Amino acid sequence: MESFLDSLFTGRYDAEKRIILSLCEKGEAFSLADLARELDTSIPKITRIVTEMENAGFLADLGKQESASGRRPSMFGLNPNAGYFIGVEVGQNSLALAVTDFTGRVLHFQDEIPYTLTNTEESVLGLCATVRKQVRRFHLNPSLIRSVGVNLTGRVNHQTGYSYSYYISEEKPIRNILEAGFERPVCIENDSRGMAFGEYMSGIAGDSHTVLFLNVGWGLGMGMVLDGKLFGGKSGFSGEIGHFPMLDNHQICRCGKVGCLETGASGLALHRLITERLGKGQPSILSAAFKDGREINLGDILSAVEKEDVTAIECVEAVGATLGRAIAGLINIFNPDVVVIGGRLCVTEQYLMPPLLGAVNRLSLNLVNNDTVIKVSRLGKKAGAIGASLLSKHRLLNQ
Ligand SMILES: [Zn+2]
């Protein structure tokens, strides 16, 4: 596969061009004087480099903009039309899809695309066909689609291209099958890490470089950006905060161990707590369904919270308090700039956050806690697909 960067990297100023691409990656614009300062070089040399990058279609002159000194220099940033990047989040029975341009702007988002990924090559290729069919509806120039990012649940090693949840028994990594199906470079990542990268790049963290993202969905996962880099650990298995053995609740976790954080702070925990209360006869708008033996899913519980069902709200508050205890510990360990709370339970923010913040304030070390801001996800349900798309661009530019 010919590299996207082949037309830019021809041996001349390659190192400088890489730095300029990475400076502009979050969508910032720079004057020639700014760039000369950043690269510690002369204005004539930076002018030559920028002109080459403009001619190759990677940078664009964004026009004159006000500067602090009142002068109006021309500003340069990424050329939005240099390419499109596709991000896919693989859910249990559906896909979410985002398309971003070269500046990171989101052009399209679509979720609830029905698809169930199973453990066969046909199924992986079927996912590619489903995504390609959807993307055709956006009428993008196919030759400008540069790469695809795919978020998968569970353990993912993006370097080897193997997922340990999907297509695990074969010798070929799932990434290679996806690349054959998309006919593009593909990067795979764990869902929580992809979401963390999306939030980091979308600006919720401002200029911060250490960001923890808690993905509070049916399970509980974490993505970490440490010193500006997405952290995967040795084999891509990092962030398993859901299986931190910190609770004394005698609950058996999905992993087979007892007392994992996920058993008290996740959608799964919320489901257990409310089912226990319904079993004791506590009144709720879910009582009738429970008595009839109908299945109550996470969506039902979240909609009960939205309708201000007191029993459901109390359960969300209990989850918030437990999650807050864990975050207090994380803050003490990592001293992060920002902790972002994301995932499906975000919609209960109004009830989840007060006990969460209370526990963090009570239990974390004051000096460390003062450094940290806790925010609710800005991208919400779009975080995964947008993150996957931005990450696929990031890895293409930084390989
Ligand atoms: Zn566990």
Mind explaining what this structure looks like?
With 399 residues, this protein is an alpha/beta fold. It folds into 3 domains: 14-81, Arc Repressor Mutant, subunit A, CATH 1.10.10; 83-198 and 383-397, 2-Layer Sandwich (Nucleotidyltransferase, domain 5); 208-377, Nucleotidyltransferase, domain 5. The protein contains 13 helices and 15 strands. It has helices spanning 14-24, 32-39, 43-55, 121-136, 174-182, 191-202, 267-279, 287-291, 298-306, 310-334, 349-363, 366-369, 383-397; strands spanning 30-31, 59-64, 74-78, 84-90, 94-100, 106-114, 145-152, 156-157, 162-163, 186-190, 211-216, 220-226, 229-231, 338-342, 373-376. Strand 8 and strand 9 (162-163) form a beta hairpin. Helix 4 packs parallel to helix 5. The chain is globular and about 75 Å long. The two termini are 14 Å apart. The model has no long low-confidence stretch (mean pLDDT 93). Zinc ion is lined by residues 243, 253, 255, 257, 260, 262.
